[in-house]
Design goal:
Blueprint lengths: L1 E7 L4 E7 L8 E5 L5 E13 L6 E9 L14 H9 L15
Parallel strand pairs: 1-5
Antiparallel strand pairs: 1-2, 3-4, 4-5
């Protein structure tokens, strides 16, 4: 595992997260939001800085939330109003008329 410092432009935070491989610029990653919900982020920049110890280079990531991911942030995703606004905002694509799920 590689420990990488992640600088989050969306929330203006920094965190150290362990990855199996260093993501590349343009790749997407999924991270948990402060409220516990998972969201997609785009990798904007990757760079390496020499560590204070030995001859080791530490990776750093600069990320931002994927556009459209937080369009309806802070709302209850299980409410009928949320579903209607998601559909109207173009976040949900269907082949025809909107209909409720019948289980």
């Amino acid at each position: 595992m590689i420990e990488i410092e992640v600088q989050n432009e969306t929330h203006q935070t920094q965190a150290r997260i362990r990855f199996a491989a260093v993501p590349r610029i343009g790749e997407g990653i999924r991270l948990r939001e402060p409220d516990g919900i998972w969201a997609s982020y785009d990798v904007l920049d990757v760079w390496y800085q020499k560590a204070e110890f030995g001859d080791v280079w530490m990776p750093y990531l600069h990320i931002r939330m994927t556009p459209g991911e937080g369009a309806l942030a802070g709302e209850d995703p299980f409410s009928d109003d949320y579903a209607a606004r998601s559909y109207d905002a173009g976040l949900v694509k269907t082949g025809g008329e909107r209909e409720t799920c019948k289980i």
